[in-house]
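Possible regression after last week's pipeline update?

I re-ran a chain I had predicted before the update to compare outputs. Posting the input and the new output here so someone can diff against the archived version. Not blocking, just want to make sure nothing changed silently.
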Amino acid sequence: MEVYLADKAGLCFGVKRAINTAFEAAAKDKVYCLGPLIHNPQEVERLRQAGVQLVEDFASLKQRDSLIIRSHGVPPGVLEEIRKKGLRIIDLTCPFVSKAQRDAEALHRDGYQVVIVGEKKHPEVQSILGYAGDNAVVVETADDTEDIHFKNRLGVVAQTTQSYSNFSKIVLKLLRLSKELKVFNTICDSTQERQDAARVLAGKVDVMLVVGGRNSANTSRLVSVCQNEGKHTYHIEVADEIQQQWFEGVTKVGVTAGASTPDWVVEGVLDKLKSKKIGA
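New output (post-update):
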């Protein structure tokens, strides 16, 4: 059985930077992280073992304690509370998320009703929402626009892990519902590159494996991309989840991984696939 890895797969620059910085900080002092740094349980556990303690709020922390702002960012009100408490901030917000926050803030300041294309409960979307003003709305699909009363002037930003396809459908729908529409394409380049590479690879193989956290939005998008190519697609977090029956009669298998999936996890999957225990 032949095994192929997508041309673009695994850790993006922003996530790699966040992970490395977190490990470096933990090596020097006790450090806390407000929520999981990234949506990958295996890497979050490695960080915990290195001394990065996960906290859901910062109420119990003391002045001068070090607190990591994770890659998804936080609303400005939360950031202000952290500063007032006197905590040392290690801001690891992804640069693409920071741009989406700034764009949402600028649109609100210029009098637009901000529309965020993304998942309502995702922490990144919640962080952007904090910059977007009181009348901002989150739209997940084009159908969602039917139930919302929009203003005449709309400004649009996207969750950085959105697909261009979904983003485009929503923007076209909003174009019909508004008098003025201003759009910032805040989808991360790495997200689109991984989706494009997964689509190309899926067209050449019999089965696709998508590696990454089940709580990872960008990994879930990769699953959808591969399924849309009509290929059997399996979403796994680690190599131990691989099942031999998936590959009966299969000659070519493709592997891709979300932008928050560390190299050591991807390598473990590739090693198992290439072993004699798996495949036709």
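Follow-up from reviewer: compared with the archived run. Residues 209 and 240 are 13 Å apart (CA to CA). Marking as no regression found.
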